[in-house]
Amino acid sequence: MRIGFARSQGEQLAARLGGSAPPIDVKKVAEHLGLRVVEEHLGADVSGLLITGRAQPCICVQKDDFRPRKRFTIAHEIGHHYLRHQFEGGAHVHVDRGNFISQRSLRSSEGVDPKEIEANQFAAGLLMPSKLVREAVAKIGGPLHDHHVAQLARDFEVSEQAMTIRLTTLRLL
């Protein structure tokens, strides 16, 4: 498993295409990579799809999800594409179900599905690059409290849970 590599690839892509301030425009990043982003009703337990094949690759995201969730889904699917995760048996559709961050699936929560874990880490690096997170925390200038985490989540347009995990990973919380 290449967790550090996946995270660094997301961060490098954010630095190259995302700009110098949050939030990173994930739709712009997807378009730059040749990925079309479509919002559709995908069913109760499907948060995103990556479709490849002869036509332009496409990310479908659950239309009813709230904005931070859609952004994480798009970043996660970009991760599958960018990290060149191969589909099994010539399949050209990858379906992502459930929550990407916590209890995404039994396999992910057990750390058994390396492609899903790598895509999550890529998404965290893309949406919350360490440089931008560290700069934002430095501006706060003191110990972080719940309201700071909530504000950082709003600034980066991610869930509070995703921001908490990222701050913990960066040893800032």
Automatic annotation (TrEMBL):
<protein>
    <submittedName>
        <fullName>ImmA/IrrE family metallo-endopeptidase</fullName>
    </submittedName>
</protein>
<dbReference type="Pfam" id="PF06114">
    <property type="entry name" value="Peptidase_M78"/>
</dbReference>
<dbReference type="InterPro" id="IPR052345">
    <property type="entry name" value="Rad_response_metalloprotease"/>
</dbReference>
<dbReference type="InterPro" id="IPR010359">
    <property type="entry name" value="IrrE_HExxH"/>
</dbReference>
<feature type="domain" description="IrrE N-terminal-like">
    <location>
        <begin position="30"/>
        <end position="168"/>
    </location>
</feature>
